[in-house]
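This section describes the prediction task in plain terms. A model, or a person checking by hand, is given the sequence of a single protein chain and must write out its three-dimensional structure as a string of tokens. No templates, partner chains or ligands are provided. The sample shown here is typical of the held-out split.
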Amino acid sequence: MRVILGAGAALALIGAAPLAAAQTTGTVDITGSVGERCEFTIDSGLITLGELSGTGGALDAAVVNGASDTLNGWCNGTAAEMTVEAHALQNITYVGAPPAGFETVVNFTATATATPSGGPVSANDSSAVAGAGAPSVVGVFSSDIDVVLSAAATPGGGKLIAGSYEGSVDVTLTPSP
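The expected answer:
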């Protein structure tokens, strides 16, 4: 009888054991975003031209043409654009209108070239025309931006008046138009 009671008690204990719990899973989704932006890692440079006039006092265009400097920048948006605005070299020490046959302005064209993975993209502008040149799509890129001057000329072809001349080139990166 003892054996029967012992076996019955064992069966009762087995039947009373809790059933194994079924596994279930919950999920936490994770989201984020990255906004389109452009930045310069090198945002300024200096082109020192030296003496601008040649024989006879007129502009020596060879001094300006081919002069260059390098910026560095990046954009992370596929529609990012680059524009260039050239500001003429102007005599900052001479006051007043120049006499006939003399000049206080040197115009030039500035070209900026970035190198996205698809190949070089350039934008340019002439300082003789107000405002920035047409934008060029650079898309996603991170590279040097080479700025080169060309097509230097004075408005009337006259002699340059002595003094200090200053100008600039603005390169603008826009994440998306």
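For orientation: Residues 61 and 138 are 30 Å apart (CA to CA).
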